[in-house]
DNA sequence: CAGTGGTCTAGACCACGAT
DNA sequence: TCGTGGTCTAGACCACTGG
């Protein structure tokens, strides 16, 4: 260590800084290959682990992704748009445009890993549905895959007393889906509450969504209410944050 | 490597798995100290870097945080609740309860790092406000600190032609804030669009929000529209995801 | 097959925090 | 002061990808 020490910033962070700046300045475009471990070792005269650490910083920031045997590449962000309130989202609020561009949806959607069954409600689920603990609930679990890329995990909980004998307890709920069947049963959902949070994925989520390192997940917990204010469904969704932009339109 | 190899899972991931399971089973509660590098080295008979790598997995998952000189500890999650649509959020949708608990807000809020000025709109800002590129815009930048912990960065953009000479161009906008002043000027915002995404923080964001490793940020871009459908404000917010749950209520 | 990233070892020195 | 995590070196073998 003869020259450096200018500033107390660790070597691996200095290297990461330079690469990050280069990416953000456009010197490396999305999809471009970045200098690899060997490049950094010679360029900066550091050990292998130090070069690796620098690259791992960028990966954990979601800026780069490694492809084994190929190299390290700048990541892209081309999200889908999920409209939380379709009724209001269209219309004449058109002078200003969206902040983040999003792909149009004329792609191949596959629903996957469907599991339907009945279990005892966890404390959280019972609370959200206004049921006593351990009440029986209908559980519908699915995965959504868009153009071969998994983007969304969905688990829906409904009071089992409501869904007895209804198509809701079968994999195919029929035209209009679960909400149409609830309406048939006299429990039409008219009000919704969505709670949103964000965190790093568990190993299981990371695997089911094929997530890159440094990709958070968005959690949406949607509760559906009837006109009487009774909760009839809790839908817990797990989204690949690199695939989604959420949008909510509302009036003052 | 005499015994292992049972399963091709790398050592550091196996160690991380065991610790993760122990955390999720409650063997280690939030705030508890986890086995440190030296503990793992002797327990699993691995090299220092391997133990470090196992712990770094948990940190990047947001499950653990390291305190230099002290140890590695299980993280906590006690979020604030941000209601996107206050008018609807109250009321009679009360049978079902929130999925995630949230602290009540009787805490000390400080607004910080206030900067107000005028610049040329970036392409993204101009697009959102329906302005020609490089149009002059009023910029209001702030940081919100709750009980000493920074939780939110906010940057607001308004067409400079609207705000000329108004208190909006000063640090203190007066009672009712920016929206009240816009109303005074005959540009009352009546409709809002919020776009939400999520990603890992930049170094600057991480520093301004004092984020732990493994903590994503939530980005909210809110556009405010007048009754005529003209956008009058773009507010870009950056939230510490470990401090927030977002909530949206709406009707079918 | 050559090059890449993935994993792992066995050392070292440092800055920091608790005692 | 002593243990902790933070940084760094200089090697090694492996699995995978590409031409």
TrEMBL record, chains A, B:
Keywords recorded for this protein, A-Z: DNA-binding, Transcription, Transcription regulation
Signal peptide: none
One family name in Pfam for this protein: UTRA
Residue span(s) of domain HTH gntR-type: 9-77
Coiled coil: none
CDD domains: WHTH_GntR
Domain of life according to the entry: Bacteria
Keyword flag NAD: no
Cited SMART domains: HTH_GNTR, UTRA
Full protein name: GntR family transcriptional regulator
Keyword rRNA-binding included in the entry's annotation: no
């Amino acid at each position: 260590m003869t020259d450096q020490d200018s500033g107390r910033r660790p070597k691996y962070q200095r290297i990461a800084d330079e690469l990050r700046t280069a990416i953000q300045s456009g010197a490396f475009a999305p999809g471009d290959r970045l200098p690899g471990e060997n490049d950094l070792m010679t360029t900066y005269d550091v050990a292998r682990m130090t070069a690796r650490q620098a690259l791992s910083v960028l990966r954990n920031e979601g800026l780069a992704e490694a492809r084994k045997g190929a190299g390290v590449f700048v990541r892209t962000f081309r999200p889908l748009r999920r409209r939380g309130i379709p009724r209001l989202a269209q219309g004449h609020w058109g002078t200003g445009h969206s902040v983040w561009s999003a792909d149009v949806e004329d792609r191949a959607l596959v629903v996957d890993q469907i599991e339907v069954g009945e279990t005892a409600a966890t404390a959280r689920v019972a609370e959200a549905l206004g049921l006593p603990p351990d009440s029986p609930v209908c559980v519908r679990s699915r995965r959504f895959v868009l153009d071969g890329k998994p983007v969304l995990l969905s688990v829906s909980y409904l009071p089992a007393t409501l869904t007895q004998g209804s198509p809701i307890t079968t994999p195919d709920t029929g035209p209009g889906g679960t909400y149409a069947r609830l309406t048939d049963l006299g429990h039409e959902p008219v009000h919704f509450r969505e709670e949103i949070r964000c965190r790093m994925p568990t190993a299981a989520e990371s695997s089911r969504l094929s997530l890159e390192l440094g990709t958070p997940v968005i959690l949406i917990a949607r509760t559906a209410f009837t006109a009487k204010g009774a909760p009839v469904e809790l839908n817990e969704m797990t989204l690949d944050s690199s695939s989604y932009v959420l949008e909510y339109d509302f009036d003052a």
